[in-house]
What we know:
alpha+beta; 2 domains; 3 helices
Amino acid sequence: MARVKNNVITQNLSGAINRQLVFKTYASGTVVTKFPDMSKVKLTEKQKAQNTRFKNAVSFAKEVLADPEKKAAMLQRTPSGKLVYHQAIAEYLASN
Length: 96
């Protein structure tokens, strides 16, 4: 794992490149790692259920954003500094 500090090219860079390198930004600088191999990871039934639950929450949030009336209603309940999308996910997860 390489650590990069005060480099103009990689400053605040984050994300993956061609599923080979991953750039992560932390307070101490940017970290470059290889893309994780998740092929041998076996999820438990609880993890699979939670992944499905979160997938449904994301679908719900996208549905809220697509409907102007639902979005306006959600915006009323959204605290300042928080996105409507995140508020919709939080409400879905709290109710289910």
